[in-house]
Design a protein that fits this description.
It is a single chain. By secondary structure, this protein is α/β, with parallel strands linked by helices. It contains nine helices and 15 strands. It has helices at 52-60, 75-86, 154-164, 188-197, 205-215, 229-245, 284-296, 301-315, 329-337; strands at residues 15-17, 21-28, 42-50, 65-67, 89-91, 103-108, 115-119, 141-145, 174-178, 200-204, 249-252, 258-261, 268-270, 319-320, 323-324. Strands 5-4-1-8-9-10-11-12-13 form a nine-stranded mixed β-sheet, sandwiched between helices. It has a four-stranded mixed β-sheet with strand order 3-2-6-7. Strand 11 and strand 12 form a beta hairpin. Helix 1 (52-60) crosses helix 7, helix 5 (205-215) packs across helix 6 and helix 7 runs antiparallel to helix 8. The protein starts with 14 loop residues before the first strand and ends with a helix. 47% of the residues are buried. Keywords: Kinase, Transferase. This is Probable PfkB family carbohydrate (Sugar) kinase. One of its GO terms (cellular component) is cytosol. GO terms for molecular function: kinase activity.
Length: 338
């Protein structure tokens, strides 16, 4: 089926996200109040959350980016659409006129963990045909995020996965997933279909360990220590989990960079670029977006992760309303050159 929103003519490989996009409202408080309590927040900071950061990062690498998820109609949806326009992101997914896109209130008191209050909107109310008209073109990279796997829209993702099949070599596009910390809440059927599709998995260490536990991969974390023990453990984690997934695996470890393993290959460490963070928000979305963009450009997985490591390092040095800011391609390459 022809997707008219994607146009006709010469195709440039693109990053397409099935992920959900919403508005984050950051509230800094001295202390998160108990039930019945009261707190004052200074300077509310709205920003776009969810898979938007993956798309924004890919766009900054100079790759066409498209959002195939659902957008609503209202104040929050208008904010999202304007941000898409400002960042060169094209919305090719469904539009709902009967409800707005959702938002999340994020309470931060300076503690390591933040408190989240979610109000779901159009993005979470898809169904089995949500992605039926999506036809990826050769060399596209289709991104799936864990935030799309726990509500009604998950049935649409599942339908897309079944259509994609279980043999990556038979697809002329690449599937990539960053499962996020919600992986532990994904049901067994959905997880099984994800594993069978054999996408590129991009996880942080916690997500990788959760996935290994869910799948029964042979991992022993008792040897992890501060220092040399991490290297040994990462090889064990990637070897065990990668063999279980039978798919490319990327495990991010902050300033240490990332470890990668491709099916049948050895686990390789791609060194990071240590720097000092100016905020506590993760640059995982930046890393995933850059990796997807580089894969769309035809780079190998190792090359893509190396550039993503550099971009993420720069991102955590720059904050806009508490959100890491992904650099452009030239900045990332310049850091590698140094």
């Amino acid at each position: 089926m022809l997707n008219l929103k994607r146009g006709i003519g010469t195709h440039e490989p693109s990053v397409i996200s099935l992920g959900q996009v919403w508005v984050d409202i950051m509230l800094n408080v001295d202390k998160v109040p108990a039930q019945g309590g009261f707190a004052v927040a200074d300077h509310p900071k709205p920003s776009i959350g969810g898979s938007y950061r993956v798309l924004q990062a890919a766009s900054r690498m100079g790759v066409p980016t498209e959002h195939a998820g659902i957008l609503g109609n209202g104040l929050w949806a208008h904010f999202i659409r304007q941000s898409f326009q400002d960042n060169g992101i094209t919305h090719i997914g469904q539009d709902r006129l009967d409800e707005d896109s959702g938002f999340r209130v994020v309470l931060s008191s300076g503690a390591p963990k933040k408190t989240f209050i979610a109000s779901y909107g159009a993005e979470a109310h898809g169904d089995s045909d949500t992605f039926d008209t999506l036809e990826p073109q050769p060399k596209d990279v289709v991104h799936i995020s864990g935030n799309t796997l726990m509500d009604h829209t998950a049935t649409g993702v599942d339908g897309f996965l079944l259509k994609a099949g279980t043999d990556p070599a038979a697809r002329d596009y690449t599937l990539a997933i960053n499962p996020t910390n919600t992986l532990r809440l994904v049901n067994d059927h959905m997880l099984e279909d994800l594993v069978l599709a054999r996408p590129v998995w991009s996880c942080n260490r916690q997500e990788a360990m959760t996935l290994a536990e869910r799948l029964g991969a042979p991992i022993d974390d008792s040897k992890v220590t501060i220092g040399g023990g991490l290297d040994d453990f990462m090889h064990q984690l990637c070897d065990g989990l990668g063999a279980t997934l039978r798919a490319p695996l990327v495990v991010r470890v902050g300033a240490r960079g990332a470890w990668i393993r491709e099916p049948g290959g050895e686990t390789i460490h791609i060194e990071g670029y240590p720097t000092k963070a100016v905020h506590t928000r993760s640059a995982g979305g930046c890393h995933t977006g850059v990796m997807c963009a580089m894969l769309a450009k035809g780079h190998s997985l190792a090359e893509s992760v190396k550039i993503a490591n550099a971009a993420a390092s720069i991102a955590i040095q720059h904050s806009l309303n508490g959100v890491p800011q992904c650099p452009d391609y030239d900045e990332a390459i310049a850091l590698i050159g140094e």
